[in-house]
Amino acid sequence: MAQALHIICFDNPYPPTYGGAIDVFYRIKALAEEGVVITLHCYYKGELHRADELESLCHAVYYYPRQTGLRQHLSCTPYGVMSRNDKQLLERLLQDDAPILFEGLVSCALLAHPALANRRKYFRECNVEHDYYHALGKASSVLWKKLFYHIEACRLKRFERNVSCATEIWALSHQDEAYFRATYPAVATRYVPCAHGYTDVRVTEGKGGPYILYHGNLAVEENEKAAVYIIRHLAKGLTLPLVIAGKAPSQRLQRLAAQVEQVQLIPNPTTEQMNRLIQDAQIHLLITFQATGIKLKLLNVLYNGRHIIVSPQMVAGTDYAPLCHVGHTDDEWIRLCKDFADRPLTQQDIALRKQILDKQYNHKS
User: Is 201 a member of any domain?
Assistant: First the structure.
């Protein structure tokens, strides 16, 4: 008999256009290809967009609107959890005794529910959430957002205790694996790499286009902070033009980019445009100041891009440092960009990527 599984997702995972959705969607796809009968429960905000792609992979798909009113803020429970708690979900989970996979801490409103005490329950963590939200608070320049992020971080740290009710924790990175093993020693914890849609390293040897690329969702404070830093501290020292591309750049970022001659900002590129920018860039400059979660954009460029220059936080908790050039200071990042501005990617570079990626990140992991 085929194995059945309930999956509770923090968001509609289709289309898989950002890190968390990519991980969930391709895990669903891999499990379905292995014959697992999936009942998917996913939350959404705003207009509902049903996905035929999910219907084709799952036995059943249920959508639940997030409850985002003021009442959800007035609780000791995290807002992200309160807004994802639907009575129908519990009723549907109790219709059978199949295991349950909770995708992300904010999907765990029912993880500790007494009615599910005897079920096998798997918790897939997306981040050490309270660390992530504290970092978002530090990165934000908007006072009310800073306040929200820090309050939510405190709530998430308290709520995280519910993880002790899980049968097993699936950690996103080695770093997070160590944290959850130490914090919840009574719960089995294992490292489960991100699922993704890449099947082979597709980059070709040789030189790319004469530009350096930084890309990401620019509406996220962490990414905007990095983009602003690169423009202010690095751009004028680079020998190649700098292209910054991503979704929803702020007016502040647009104004800043326009002031520096060698910087080109490409707002809201299409998927085709972004893929082409990634494939053609000579250098990928990926700087982050948060060692939280796993950076799916790093995986993207490992499979599809040429030389990759990173901050240590970008590769923290991963096995990818040998595939990147790690800088720690402005001078080091500028020097590395100059060193690789005219250097072709070699077959040896590509072979090393294939060796490490095939071992660590098979998409069916």
Answer: no
Closest CA to 242 of 251, 229, 230: 230
* 348 in Cβ contact with 203 (< 8 Å): no
Indicate the number of domains in the chain. 2
Both 213 and 170 in a single domain? no
Q: Print the domain residue range for 47.
A: 4-191
Nearest to 40 by CA among 110, 86, 102: 102
- The span from the CA of 266 to the CA of 280, in Å, is 15
pLDDT in tens, 169-217: 999 888 899 999 999 999 999 999 888 888 889 999 999 999 999 998 8
DSSP structural state of residue 268: S
The residues pairing with 190 across neighbouring beta strands, listed in sequence order, are: 170
Exposure string of 141-151, with b = 16+ CB inside 10 Å and e = fewer, is eeeeebebbbe
Half-sphere exposure of 324 (CA within 13 A, CB side): 28
The reply to whether 60 falls in a domain is yes
**Reported pTM:** 0.85
The residue written with tokens 């490992």 in the block is 302
Separation of alpha carbons 292 and 301, rounded Å: 18
Return the CATH number at 242: 3.40.50.2000
Whether 203 maps to a domain, the answer reads no
Question: Which of 333, 242, 334, 329 is closest to 282 using CA atoms?
Answer: 242
DSSP state of 335: H
pLDDT tens digit sequence for 298-349: 989 999 999 999 999 999 878 899 999 999 999 999 999 999 999 999 999 9
Three-state secondary-structure class, residue 210: strand
Pair (100, 42) in one structural domain? yes
Q: For Cα atoms 150, 22, 34, give the angle at the middle one, nearest 5 degrees.
A: 130
Asked, for residue 108, whether it belongs to a domain, the answer is yes
CA distance 5 to 100: 6
Residue 48 backbone phi and psi in degrees, to 5: -80, 130
Helix (H) or strand (E) holding 92: helix 87-93
User: From CA 137, how far away is CA 273, in angstroms rounded?
Assistant: 31
Task: Tell me: do 145 and 283 sit in the same domain.
Answer: no
